[in-house]
Specification:
Blueprint lengths: L6 E5 L1 H4 L11 E2 L2 E2 H4 L2 H6 L1 H15 L6 H13 L2 E4 L5 H5 L5 E2 L2 E8 L8 E2 L18 E5 L9 H10 L2 E5 L11 H8 L3 E6 L11 E4 L2 H13 L3
Helix pairs in contact: 5-9
Bound molecules: zinc ion.
Length: 233
């Protein structure tokens, strides 16, 4: 029974909040919302401003450490196996020891060519001043390797195929607002193929879609829930 279980784990900002990475929804940065800045239109209009915003985010996230929830997930992944998909652009799952993590919204500490000339993304911890923005070898501006509002999320094809085969779906610290991620659980509910579980500090917008909702801080509740999954409970 246990060996037949295929687990899909989705994580959002709630899992990293206890590591000191702010939850960006509704926050204000120099009079702009996260939605306004993490947006392809903002990049087209004012790449300097967007780079300043992402530089500051890099500065804040650089010293963050994984918390007990990240560590429990990495341990679960090693012991039981799972598909791990995160909306977070921080690298805290990898820092905790997880491998093969799918970053649906990209990675904060990578940059890539804005002209998509074919150059591979580069790991990049730098913070940039407006007069000194980075350029690709082809001459185009480099941009943060993240997925913005108005852009297609990364690796959707793989994610949907993993959703199709999973028998347990565990969402941690996601708001339930941002599409397409918010609709994953309703997709599974329609098919009635998987048990669906939510863990987070507060109820997500799509709470009614889940079979089980456990509220509490991720660092406490995630290890508990993963423990029951490992016991086949
Ligand atoms: Zn280029």
């Amino acid at each position: 029974m246990l060996s037949a279980s295929i687990t899909f784990i989705l994580t959002g900002a709630g899992i990293s909040a206890e590591s000191g990475i702010p939850v960006f929804q509704g926050t204000d940065w120099r009079g702009h919302s996260h939605y306004e800045l993490a947006n392809i239109d903002a990049w087209r209009r004012d790449p300097q401003l967007v780079w300043e915003y992402y530089s500051e985010r890099r500065g804040r996230a650089r010293d963050a450490k994984p918390n007990a929830a990240h560590l429990a997930l990495a341990e679960f992944q090693k012991a039981a196996g799972c598909f791990l998909c995160t909306q977070n652009v921080d690298g805290l799952h990898e820092a905790a020891g997880s491998t093969g993590v799918v970053h649906i919204h990209g990675k904060l500490f990578e940059s890539r060519c804005s002209a998509e000339c074919g150059a591979a993304p580069v790991v990049d911890f730098e913070e940039y001043a407006p007069q000194n923005l980075p350029r690709c070898g082809c001459g185009a501006l480099m941009r943060p390797n993240v997925c913005w509002f108005g852009e297609q999320p990364c690796e959707l094809e793989r994610i949907y195929s993993e959703l199709e085969r999973c028998t347990t779906f565990l969402a941690i610290g996601t708001s339930g607002f941002v599409q397409p991620v918010a609709s994953f659980v309703s997709l599974l509910k329609q098919r009635q193929q998987a048990r669906t579980i939510y863990v987070g500090l507060t109820e997500p917008a799509n709470a009614a879609q889940f079979d089980h909702v456990y509220l509490g801080s991720a660092s406490v509740v995630v290890p508990q829930v993963l423990g029951t999954l490992r016991c086949g409970g």
